[in-house]
Amino acid sequence: QLVESGGGLAQVGDSLKLSCEVSEDDDIMHTMAWFRQAPGQDNEFVARIAWFGGDTVYADSGKGRFTISRDNAKDITYLLMSSLKLEDTAVYSCAAAPAPKYSSRQSDYDSWGQGTQVTVSS
Q1: Are 25 and 87 in contact (CB under 8 A)?
Q2: Within 13 Å of residue 111, how many CA atoms lie on the same side as its CB?
Q3: Are strands 116-121 and 8-11 parallel, antiparallel or unpaired?
């Protein structure tokens, strides 16, 4: 079970750090990812990180602004979002896929959090 936190209100240019905690450790290595869904839009890939933390991939929308990281000892995955834009407003959800799956496809992820709202205003 995944539980996100850290969303909220921010202004353009601000930073927010989202957290995703795994509440039940099943001792299975997982790729972790963040997706987001803006109002009226499809759910879209944001970033992913390999289970060992050494490899990360970002959607173009977040390159240079977002940083995904993980602390496997604490079973927490983070998404640091900097230089926020209005178009970053969305519900952000974390997801887990059992290794060796490592993709941006939603269908590869079998565990999802409930999502946390991020609203960016000018």
Answers
A1: no
A2: 21
A3: parallel
Give 90-100 pLDDT, tens digit per residue.
999 999 998 88
Cα–Cα distances in angstroms (integers) from residue 97 to residues 30, 34, 36, 104, in the given order? 5, 11, 16, 10
Dig out the tokens for 67 from the structure. Answer: 């940083």
Written as six digits, the tokens of 88 are: 């970053």
CA distance 54 to 117: 28
Per-residue tokens: 40: 């009226």
Q: How far from 35 is each of 71, 73, 84, 102, CA to CA, in Å?
A: 19, 23, 16, 14
pLDDT digits (tens, 9 = 90+) for 24-44: 766 678 899 999 999 999 999
* 76: its two tokens: 């927490």
